Prior knowledge:
- The protein is an alpha+beta fold.
- The protein has two domains: 7-185, Maf protein, CATH 3.90.950.10; 189-294, no CATH class.
- It has helices spanning 7-16, 38-53, 79-82, 87-96, 155-158, 160-166, 168-187, 194-206, 208-213, and strands spanning 59-68, 104-115, 118-130, 146-148, 222-230, 233-246, 250-259, 264-273, 278-285, 290-294.
- A six-stranded antiparallel beta sheet has the order 9-8-7-6-5-10, sandwiched between helices. It has a four-stranded antiparallel beta sheet with strand order 1-2-3-4.
- It is globular, with a radius of gyration of 21 Å.
Amino acid sequence: MLASRNAHKARELERLLPGWTIEALVADGWPEETGDTYESNARIKAEFGRVVLGPGATVIGEDSGLEVDALGGRPGIYSARYAPEGAPAIAKLLGELDGIDDRGARYVSELVCITPRGEFRGTGTLTGRIAREPRGHEGFGYDPVFVPDGEAESVAELGDAWKERHSHRARAARALLAALALTLLVAGCGGSDKTGTRVLQRFFAAGPVARKLGTRFPHKPGTLPCTVNDGGKTVQATCATEVSLVKPDKAVVTLTEAWNHGAKAHTWFFFIRRDGSVQSVVQEGSPSPVTTTTK
């Protein structure tokens, strides 16, 4: 359950978290957002959702905002209260920036997920600039006037498919998935038994990306020595495979390349079904080197 009255955010998060069903919380007596950070406001919402739904519920609180350089970071955490969402808020923002050439800005999203197993967080940002006038019809909020770095079009012009890959909320969702995956691995949800090995075999046979990775990573939980090309130099490394089985039919496959005596590492978290099909993938750590051989 998303502790928000914004149905747009619930639908967007559901697309960003494959395999999850997310609904906006319907409740009375919403608390004031009295926090001084996005994280604290997201936590206030998530904790309210747990009060409404009970301690066994999984609730996500989200807080996000638009920080504009020329306005000293405003509206920031007050973005939702800056003006009524949509055209009124955009008109007020463009009015404040009238005649100002510094249009730098960034979107920020913070997710706090409270589950019976604990609390998890994900943070995402998207830098860009504020356009002179609204353009495009997809998205919501300030999307018609926010132009991401490296793009010529506004987020509303780039569309929902682009947002699912690149938005601040997409980046926060990937960070949240990575945090959840790490917890599953630390908790030891299985993976050293025959079932885990069968899941890994299906995963490495399921698609071109997995098959390519399977040429250098072990097909059962464990580690193999390998060499990688790091900055033009061939260095010794290790390629490690782990699997966590998540009932009833999900699993997390974690592949880690570590080199420079463990000082550098790149990790893939593959969220899969037990038939090996990939639902989503998160990458964390140092930029991935080119693995040259597996011994």
